[in-house]
Amino acid sequence: MISVCIPTYNGEKYIQKQLNSIMTQLANDDEVIISDDSSEDSTIDIIKDYSDNRIKLIEGCTFKNPIFNLENALKEAKGDFIFLADQDDIWLPDKVNTTLEKLTIYDIIVCNGHIVDENENIIHESYFKWKGSGAGFIKNLKKNSYLGCSLAFNRKILNYILPFPKKIAMHDIWIGMVVELIGKPYFIQKPLFLYRRHKNNFTAAIHKADHELTDNTLFYKIEYRVVMLIYLFSRYIKRKVCLK
User: Residue 60, SS3?
Assistant: First the structure.
């Protein structure tokens, strides 16, 4: 069983295309968990129009934070395999099958994607090449290459990543570093989704900030890495579970 977890907030412009691209790849017993963080547009109405019992909508959330909005969806997931998705991307037709093949061997899968603009024009053919993505604890501690909307992992990973620490920079950095520490990651080079970047895209803003070397951002980069290392090793010691 697959659980697709999507945090939404004012996603009316793109959510329908994204859901369409996901639903056609799922089996009848799979599920899509959507946690909505008090959208003020027609996002909720669009989702409810599907009348699909595989879609489970959590309304009325007031996190005002994409990290803990996603965590809310993850807590409700029942699947053996967890896929993360953003409200404004598009899955390519073979994303689920290609990813599942690797999830029988690895603990977490990171899918490559085409970077597109708001009109789905390709800006970069490969997110991996643009970001320099790849596995490695030190590599990703220096420069994170785990992109939340590209991740899929085995259910046992939830035992380590939840609950999210309160002061992590972003959920994808946390999830990626946890698995680098205790599991086996795999990066699929073939693009399997369209990663949309636009002016209202929170993740795009985070990545933009990550490239700006002002005094403040340099201090922040050092600080969040130190804090994350403390969280990582504390979580590892508390769980004392070996992934096989």
Answer: coil
Q: How far is residue 163 from each of residues 13, 133, 156, 159, 175, measured CA to CA in Å?
A: 31, 26, 13, 9, 11
**What is the CATH architecture of 2-239?**
Alpha-Beta Complex (3.90)
- How many whole angstroms separate alpha carbon 112 and alpha carbon 91? 11
Between the two ends of the chain, the Cα-to-Cα distance in Å is 20
Helix, strand or coil for residue 32? strand
Which structure tokens are listed for 55? Answer: 């879609």
The residue extents of the domains of the chain are 2-239
pTM for this model (two decimals):
0.90
Mean pLDDT by 10 residues, the chain (244 residues): 97 97 98 97 97 96 94 97 98 98 96 96 97 96 94 95 92 95 95 89 43 57 88 81 44
Q: Which residue intervals of the chain are DSSP H helices?
A: 15-23, 43-48, 66-76, 95-103, 127-131, 137-142, 158-161, 171-182, 202-210, 215-239
Residues 6+ apart with CB under 8 A from 84: 4, 5, 6, 70, 148, 149, 150, 151, 152
| 3 state SS of 83 | strand
Nearest to 149 by CA among 210, 83, 99: 83
